[in-house]
Each structure stands twice: as C-alpha cells, then as structure tokens.
C-alpha cells in the first residue's frame, strides 16, 4: 500500500479545515455499498504516531512518516465497522461548503426582506420590471455559481481498526478530540473503534469536468 508522494495544497487545506467527510465502505463478498457522514481529523506525515523504539517499529515508523492519514471513531455495532473489517478498502469524499454555507445564511436573512420593487408596489400592481430583479434571485444565482466553483476531492485508502488497549489508539483518539471536541460521544464506552485510514491516492474534480489524479 504505497502512499501518494504529495497532495496538492488545496486538498491539504480541505483536509485541515473541513469538519465532516463522507465515508464510503462496501461489504464483502456481497458488495453492498454504504455511505456515512463522519467527524474526522487529518494526520499529516509529521504527526503520525511513532511507536516505542525497536528495530521493527523503527522501520514501520519511517514508512508511516511518508503517509497521510484520516482518523475517525465509530461504534462496533455499525454497518460501516462491519464493512471495514470485511473489506478495508474505503473512499472518502470531502468538499468545501464554507462559501455555500455563508451564502445560504445570507439567503435566509434576505428571504424575509422585501425587495426594492416590493417595498414600492402593492400586490395588485404589475410584477417588477427586468430592471429591478429580485435580490433573492440574485442571491440564489450567486449561491449556485459559488457551490459549483468549489473543488471536491475523492480520496481512496485502506482502513485499519486500532486495538482499544494500544498506545496508538489513545494517541489518535486524543488527536480526534482536539480537532472535534463534540466527537467525544463517539469515543465513549467499550464498544468503540478508532479507525485509521491510510490515504493511497486522490482524485480532484471541478465544475468544468477537469479531473486530476494524485498517486
């Protein structure tokens, strides 16, 4: 399982700033797909867990220092956990919704605000002319254009369930909670699994149907 030599800066920015991603898993041998919205944290090569020193662990640590990881937590009695145990190949979809969210909030605040035409006309009068378009219409157009202009990244990787009694489990659990304090609800109890996904490649697409691959 080789790691990508590098990931583009815009993908790294997405990984570092987004709070959620969509995790795709697939059962085996039935090949039934499942998608889940997940809290996560991104682990760059310089933050990868380093086991206690030994010849074997030193070799593993050196190899891992070249890789990018995603850390998530889930209950063991879930479909995605069973899928990961049966089939560790997973995909994640990550998208920057920040701009769209800001525009959506603006849309919400403006939807109850009369347009200039509405404030000067009775409902019995003719609709506003083309010279006075609705601000809400403009806002919706802006929202659509902004959303389409955002970049989405699909990353493929291999998922690994971590032993809950291991130092590695504790390390990554703390890293996950640092990034997402509200994820604590998913790390409570004895039925919890921390999942580490080693990223192996990325596919980046834009609204012009341009796609780039990074291995």
UniProtKB/TrEMBL annotation:
It comes from the Eukaryota. Residues 108-133 are annotated as: Disordered. Gene3D superfamilies: Electron Transport, Fmn-binding Protein, Chain A (2.30.110.10). InterPro entries: PMP_oxidase-like, Split_barrel_FMN-bd. Transmembrane segments: none annotated. One of its GO terms (cellular component) is nucleus. Residues 108-127 have a biased composition (Polar residues). This is LAME_0F19746g1_1. It comes from Lachancea meyersii CBS 8951. The lineage of its organism: Eukaryota, Fungi, Dikarya, Ascomycota, Saccharomycotina.
């Amino acid at each position: 399982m080789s790691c990508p030599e590098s990931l583009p800066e815009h993908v790294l920015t997405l990984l570092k700033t987004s709070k959620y991603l969509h995790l795709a898993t697939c059962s085996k041998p039935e090949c039934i797909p499942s998608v889940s919205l997940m809290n996560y944290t991104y682990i760059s090569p310089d933050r990868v867990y380093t086991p206690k020193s030994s010849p074997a662990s030193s070799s593993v640590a050196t190899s891992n220092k070249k890789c990018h990881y995603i850390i998530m937590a889930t209950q063991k009695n879930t479909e995605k956990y069973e899928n990961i145990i049966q089939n560790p190949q997973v995909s994640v979809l990550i998208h920057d919704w920040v701009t769209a969210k800001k525009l959506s909030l603006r849309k919400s605040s403006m939807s109850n605000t009369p347009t200039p035409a509405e404030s000067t006309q009775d409902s019995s009068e003719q609709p506003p002319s083309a010279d006075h378009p609705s601000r809400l219409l403009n806002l919706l157009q802006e929202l659509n254009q902004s959303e389409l202009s955002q970049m989405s990244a699909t990353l493929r990787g291999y998922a690994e369930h971590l032993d809950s009694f291991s130092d590695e489990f504790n390390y990554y659990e703390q890293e996950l909670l640092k990034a997402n304090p509200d994820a604590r609800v998913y790390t409570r109890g004895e039925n919890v699994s921390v999942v580490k996904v080693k990223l192996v490649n990325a596919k980046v697409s834009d609204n012009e149907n341009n796609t780039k691959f990074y291995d």
